[in-house]
Amino acid sequence: MRRRFKILWVGVALLILFAFLYLPGLSRYQELRLEEERLGRELAQLDKQIQNLQEEKELLEKDQDYLEKVIREELGLVKPGEMIYKLVPEKEPTEPPESH
Mean pLDDT throughout 58-80? Predict the structure, then answer.
């Protein structure tokens, strides 16, 4: 009976030792797996952004109408003799502050 009790304690001690050594590694593995997933999503976004920029570069190099549109919108340039009209929305009237 006493021998079985010693074997049981040795088993419990080994189990605790195994948990002490194994669980931190498992936790770190899960952290690294989550980081890998996050980086994978970020990489996919960056790949999509690169693809969009390459497509825009190709349009800018080959499509004169697109190039003119971008120059007009982003740089505000106009052709000689053109007039630009800029519509400004009306501001809503503000109410005077309440007096106490």
Answer: 89
